[in-house]
Amino acid sequence: MNRGSNPRKRPPPTPQPPQPSPAAKHQAAKPSPTTDEEFVDEDVFLDETVLIAEDEENMVRERQVLASRLAKWRRPPLSGAYLSQSQSITFQQLEMDYVVGESHKELLPDRSGPAAIIRIFGVTREGHSACCLVHGFEPYFYISCPHGMGPDDISQFHHILEGRMKEVNRNSKVPRFIRRIELVQKRSIMYYQQQSSYSFLKIVVALPMMVTSCRGILDKGIHIDGLGAKSFMTYESNVLFALRFMIDCSIVGGNWIEVPAGKYYNRTSRNLSHCQLEFDCLFSDLISHAPEGEFSKMGPFRILSFDIECAGRKGHFPEPSHDPVIQVANLVTLQGEKQPSVRNVMTLNSCSPIAGVDVMSFETEKELLLAWRDFIREVDPDIIIGYNICKFDLPYLIERAETLGIAEFPILGRIRSSRVRVKDTTFSSRQYGTRESKEVTLEGRVQFDLLQAMQRDYKLSSYSLNSVSAHFLSEQKEDVHHSIIADLQNGNAETRRRLAVYCLKDAYLPQRLLDKLMFIYNYVEMARVTGVPMSFLLSRGQSIKVLSQLLRKAKQKGLVIPNVKQAGSEQGTYEGATVLEAKAGFYEKPIATLDFASLYPSIMMAYNLCYCTLVTPEAVSKLNLPPECVNKTPSGETFVKSTLQKGILPEILEELLTARKRAKADLKEAKDPLEKAVLDGRQLALKVSKLYVCQS
Ranges for the DNA polymerase delta/zeta catalytic subunit N-terminal domain (predicted)? Predict the structure, then answer.
């Protein structure tokens, strides 16, 4: 589509996030999965129904010719070692989620009923797509153990809590809601405490969403014989299940995972995904490789950049309920390659040849849309990119297929029976403000919208594709005004060729921007540094990145993080630093400038500022701490020095600073361009990550 002239396709011209109205602020204060402060799991149940009717329909339509044209773009075939399960499977993971399905009988013979199954999607070094189904990992959280509670009391508490959970989850088929309650020794991250550990209860539940319902019961209070009615503060009950799994298994975003031979079951029949490798394993058998040395390299991801054109009515912006999709341009590039390996354009009606491009023409719009769906399956991209695809292109395709009654079209993800889901969403963050968007679920594939990335990472006067391309690439779109698109379509094969060249350019520019600005390297390295999946970087704010780093370090130290209730994104504001205006003018004498290297991190490390080193006013006098063992801030807070207890925030910052120095030193020594790109992305990610930690 034309992104330079049409106001509905073009993003806002100003980089400033919109200020929410009072009503919008009120809405932002409600807990929501898309806000930056609240993280909630949503159980998706596994559908093992394979759509057999599609193959029959394909045969009826006699689409063998199209299938043979698409087959040349398939991934390389599997080797015999993979098919015989005689070698380990090592792959770089890009996407991770979970579904609810039946417990695996071979891997977990002593369990039955619904269970959470982690799905990890990635690619091997040979370029094979992989779907790893991980079993046995259970959701849990903590509460402080009441004083005087013994083993018998814990058993009674378990029984009471199970009964309350049955009342709340009456329609659930889970045989047991509370799997077990364990007595563990931990310490809260909040405030300096001289005692090394305290008793906590680790509550393990059957399904991730039950963490939320169980937390609600404990927040309201529960009656325990001998202790009376008591409400509980929960700890780490707001940690998303996939993130909890990654932390406990030492997995970071974009790293390489290995499953040894003999530790996995290949799915030879009734595969649930379109991946070449689909296998089941236990979470305890996964080997997570730190992103160092050979395992710091990028896998051969397949990146699809696409763009659509629609024939809008005169004076109207295209609407999927009325206006057809007339062209789809596709470019497929292997990560690290300079040129696309696939260039094609699918057109409605005939189109003259284009040098170096596969032109595929169709007589009906339905044939065009189904051909694009088949193309997605055959090419099997790991990452789908474009400009404004999340808010326009993908939703338009889905809604247009629905208008035409093409029920089999919206299966574009890697799961055979799963249809693409589109819903309106609001992203709210302190840094980025509130933005209306659409959430499109393509299971197993990462969506990377260049428009969203530009708005997050760069301050520009205009975010139209034309302006952004001119700014970074010194290149612009083809000269086709949106008002003549319908006329070009209604002309002849030559006019449609002009439109196809325009459409191809709109698919090519996002790929050029992706390469020029090293987005994949930078985002994968950011995922590795912060420890979150790559998709979290695109769909969530800063809090999840900080929480991930805090949880990992807290786990090492035996600390737990309380689930503090958050208000809306406008809460917790504070006055910024004083900035003196520069005196503009011409100065004959040189002016010395002084810049404090890593100012905020240095202050936090020097004064040991952290949640776990903060001393409450009551504890200052009670603990009778010597003056030489504490630091007092100008605002009156007291923190113990590192001689008494090292803060985990200063420790994280020291590690980030050390890692960045090492990455910059390695960058100077590196000769290979791909290695240099990885190291540069890493040092930038480490730099930005320091700011996230400071802002926590």
Answer: 136-211
